[in-house]
What we know:
This protein is mainly alpha-helical. The protein has 20 helices and twelve strands. The chain has helices at 20-36, 56-67, 90-102, 113-125, 141-149, 196-206, 222-232, 262-267, 272-280, 295-301, 316-329, 332-345, 350-353, 358-367, 374-381, 395-422, 428-442, 446-458, 466-473, 475-488, and strands spanning 7-10, 39-42, 73-74, 106-109, 155-158, 165-169, 173-177, 186-188, 211-215, 238-242, 245-246, 312-313.
Amino acid sequence: MSTPMIRTRFAPSPTGHLHIGSARTALFNWLLARKTGGVFILRIEDTDTDRNVPGADRQIIEDLRWLGLNWDEGIEVGGPHGPYYQSQRMDLYNAAIRRLLEAGQAYYAFDTSEELDAMRGEAEARKQAFRYPRPARLPDESDARRARDEGRPVVVRFKMPAEDITVHDEVMGDVTVAATELDDFIIRKADGMPVYHLANVVDDTAMGVNLVMRGQEFLAQTPRHIALQRAFGYPTPRYVHMPLTMDMKGRKLSKRDGAVEVHAFRQAGYLPETLLNFIALLGWSPGGDREKMTVAEMLELFSIERMNRVNSKFDRDKLLAFNTNAVAEASPERLSAGFDDWLAVNPDSPLSRAGLDAATRATLLEVNRGFRTFADIEHKSGFLYVDDEGISYDPAAVKKVLAKNDNAGFHMLAALLPQLEALEPWSTESIEGFIKGVCESQGVGMGNVAQPLRVAVSGTTISPAIYDTLVLLGKPRTLNRIRRALAINQ
Ligand code: GLU
């Protein structure tokens, strides 16, 4: 018997930019589809109108495209099972719900939220888990109409069969949920929208999805999905629930500790291929000590069997180290494209506002060699592209480099100013010759000359090499900034 072609999907809810955990889900589904010659589908699950964020679908597309995770069927690209926005597939869900109602596998319910709260409260008082009490006589259409007329919320509940349900998960093994833990859950809300479980199950079958790979947070819901599949007579797909990704302290990843969305990592200046390599290792490993992989290598090595059961930790230092290495090894063309992308997604950076030409962009990459992310270039060189008046002097740098030892740094700047005014031409070589000459004639180290200049032109102790810095800044602005720095001391 030949194995059917694998059809996977990524089914995000449009609530914002792609979270790093969701990016991993997309990556693994994509890897599996690509590796096996299967199909990767992108579907937007937007039936929860309270949670939808306008424009989030575009953001998700942008993030997936940046990562290079293309899809074969789905929003934007189309396909045989569209539309791929669930909000446009209401007829399908309504027909499915009708089928269940007519077969007596679902029924109307009209409880208000106060009534439900009261029932929950009673269960709690009895120290029991709340289970919706199925009425002895299931309400029918005319009951529903009457309830609607009375202004009561009308929902549809699924009649959960009284049986334990086992999920054969390919990572977690067999996971059985007892019938007593499953109750008659809502499949259509009072606003007429289907709930996630219903729409998800209907679409997976309609779209021919035969392998569902998603985060472990969904595992607890899977018995409900299986029960629905059985009620509809649908096949149950293969299930792979991936371990969760936590922060270094084992807590949920949080914005408090830094970026959690793909777009934020893009803005922070990471390379997409590095981010992919890093997230591939969250819950999977190719074996041995191997960590560094190109996308082609991941495709070759990826397998469900090597997925971990334990949660992974999101090690930001490691990601930064990955990126630092990747940047050091990248070709000038790759860096140039990466830097251009970084500028495009950081329109407010002084580097972007300056509208740098290609030669200057290449120079910045060169003089900042050793940078860890593209944002480092701004950190080290942003001062070159702000007005002289926009430079503020870091008090700690002023104290340490200019004011210490009876204003030695200020004196140095005062002595350098007229000589730099006279210096011609203004080039790396001439500036280097000049500074070295000053060191020799005064018998001082390079730092005694370069550091005061650095603080004067940048306001801080961070900049590219001083010769490059002064050339990039140009003579008039260098002199102007030295004068401004001297003025602090008056
Ligand atoms: N819409 C769900 C989410 O937001 C998809 C879950 C699934 O893959 O089944 O992640």
